[in-house]
Amino acid sequence: MSDDLDDLKAAMTSATPSPDGARRAENLALARQNFETLQGSAKPLRPTSENGQNALWTGVKTMLNTLTSKGALGATTALVACGFLFLTPTGQDLLRKPAPMTVKQETESAAKTVDTLRRATPQPVPARPKASSPLSELLTDDSGAAGLTATTSPADQPIVPANDLSTMQSSDTEAFANAAANPVKVVSEEPVSTFSIDVDTASYSLVRSSLQNGSMPPHDAVRVEEMINYFPYDYAGPEAGEAPFRPTVTVMGTPWNAGTQLVHIGLQGRMPKVADRPALNLVFLIDTSGSMSDANKLPLLKQSFRLMLDNLRPEDQVAIVEYAGSAGQVLAPTAASDRTTILQAIQGLGAGGSTNGQGGLEQAYAVGASMAEDGEVSRVILATDGDFNVGIDSPEALKTYIADKRDSGTYLSVLGFGRDNLDDATMQALAQNGNGIAAFIDTLSEAQKVLVDQLTGALFPIAGDVKVQVEFNPAAVAEYRLIGYETRSLRREDFNNDTVDAGDLGAGHSVTAIYEVTPKGSDAVLNDPLRYQAAEVSGDAAELGFLKLRYKEPGEDVSKLLEVQIAQGTATNSEAQFASAIAGFGQLLSGSDYLGDWGYAQAIDLATANRGADAFGYRTEAVQLMRLAKSLSGQ
Amino acid sequence: MRMTTADEDLALAAASGDGAAFALLLDRHYDRLFAFCFRLTGARAEAEDLTQDICAALPAKLASYQRRAKVTTWLYRVAVNAAHDRRRRRATYVKASAGWGDWEVNRTETAIEDAAKIDWLTTAMQSLNDDLRDTLALVLDDMTHAQAAKILGVSEGTISWRISEAKKRLKEFKEKEDVA
């Protein structure tokens, strides 16, 4: 170790990431499993180990070498795991037929050309007393075997453990925003639950993309409320003269727990006549970095915009700003009626070039501001595959900037493309601060849904900062749990604080929230009563709770209040049932432990039975995804 | 107490079929192994995968472990060989640089200045050929030239030569960077 290398070493040390905990546990489990398999089946053959080991190794390697497709590259490691699990039980066959091997004395000059496989068999190394090195401290480090016991896998595990695959799928640069699942709360201790609505749907698309690629989605990619809100529901809308949306509350039995009930809260936004909506000013801020050139990114984006263009009205205006690749405004504000100009600009977007697009976001907002006239909605639509190098470096500064612009009347929506380095967490943060939606576009039909079917809702808010607060009646409800909305929870006092931002409801959109509540006296109560607390609350148990909603009319600063009683009841309908099936599905995917024996099969039955009219086929697709998940999870 | 048992004894016990000894041994060395894999590959995702390869193959390789060798020396050799195998597999995919590309995107964790340094480092290491890189990875991991020589199966003189060669190239690389 010379001085010259000291800097290098220090840099390398600081660059070295700490191992991923989950992967560590899995790898240790894998090693143990292989160890045990080897002990069980291959032990009698171990005396002939030299050739036998190599034969086994060669078999796997040959298998890997024959995989040349690009897709297989990603799966390589899965196959190593799979291959070993697969091969070791049948390892005897392989071991009986060792590949012919010529063992030569290895010389230094030949070292490069010698088959690395043969080198995999370590040569005996003469032991030599060594001076103590920093190593020895590490070696005697008795940082225990914690976690190992938990990783022992049952013998009947499927050959490819589902978790294994999903971890493989989430590459290092894909980041997800999620928080731990909401816990069960005791009503007598914490009777009030407050959260902001969430109209994003990105999580469902991510889940779909994972499942359709043949792997279970990572737990963190699953946000249950976004899965539920992906689907349009046929809730009753508001009458003329009422608030811009109408809440519908349904209390019904819980599919996965006989001792609890679901309180299903559906908000249906008004759908103004399309002809009545103000003109839109849209600024597309498009990532044209090199990574966007994949077929499922920029080309899909271009197709999506063409779809959307057909649905804009002549007085709407469109501008396009590129960043990351060739930076700058590529289309000055243009009336949507001038299709040729817009289409040409879209067609001319090119992925390529280095990242030099500083200030893309500022430019987009400046263009947006220049387009807005009184009473018009301006919106920046950021389309990216995860490169948020939009000119502001720190995520915090970016959020603040977007929130400032939101307050001055320009909103931001984020469309995500491609899976490999999608930064879901940043997408969420930006869209939440920009009063917009975050959607993940993986297929043209998803583009159709987000940019065509729900265009008006996506781009035209009817109620701002919609907050939900539920107070449960301790005389009727012992415990409750909000399903999903982990990233949207608000403090109790934030409900009445109009300066606290919350989600916006788009025209015609619906939002669903589901609580699982345990009625008083049910045997499904999880928490024991306390010994030193006041005795049981008694009172009128006719109401389960009280629902309060706050929202702002677009452009207003002062919120309005809506109040609804949540009455006891078990009436149900297929819309609420379907939502509960998706809630269950989402919880299964996120590894929730509240579902007991209820599994994918039950979710499939429940969803199938409540598909309703399903004009767009979204629900049918959901059932197909459930079936995929069922197969992939090995249930 | 198992916790204080020497690695070498654990490895021998594991080689003769003691599952607990194997688990403990691997748990002790996993983090270090991962760090080494990172040095060999230069990308986190690659390092995770390489570590997994090694973990999967390790039980089969235990049989070849001999008491005379230090466990780390043996383990590092297994790692170097596994890295060779991976590189060979990757070479067929041409896009060997993809793993290094990941790095560039991984911008959130480190401060900008640090990132620049690391970027330089990874690019520089990438510019070395595999032999030089492996050697450098070992020496950067506090291995003596003699130990590195054993692990790579070459003479100590070769290691010293490789290190000076690597230094020379890194210096050239740095100068070229500075000019550019």
Describe this structure in words.
The complex is a heterodimer of chains A (635) and B (180). Chain A is of the alpha+beta class. Among the domains of chain A are: 41-65 and 73-101, no CATH class; 185-272 and 462-527 and 534-576, Immunoglobulin-like (Sandwich), CATH 2.60.40; 277-448, 3-Layer(aba) Sandwich (Rossmann fold). Chain A is built from 21 helices and 16 strands. Chain A has helices at 4-15, 21-42, 49-65, 70-87, 91-96, 116-119, 134-140, 148-151, 162-169, 202-212, 224-229, 298-309, 339-348, 360-371, 395-407, 424-433, 444-453, 455-459, 574-589, 600-609, 618-633; strands at residues 185-186, 192-196, 245-254, 257-269, 280-287, 317-323, 328-335, 377-384, 410-417, 438-441, 461-472, 477-483, 503-506, 510-519, 543-552, 560-567. A 6-stranded mixed beta sheet of chain A has the order 7-6-5-8-9-10, with helices on both faces. Chain A has a 5-stranded antiparallel beta sheet with strand order 1-12-14-4-3. In chain A, helix 12 (298-309) links the parallel strand 5 (280-287) and strand 6 (317-323). The model of chain A is unreliable at 41-172 and 353-358 (pLDDT under 50). Chain B is an all-alpha fold and 180 residues long. In chain B, helix 4 (71-91) crosses helix 8 (145-152) and helix 8 (145-152) packs across helix 9 (156-179). Chain B starts with 6 loop residues before the first helix and ends with a helix. Mean pLDDT of chain B is 74; it is low at 93-113.
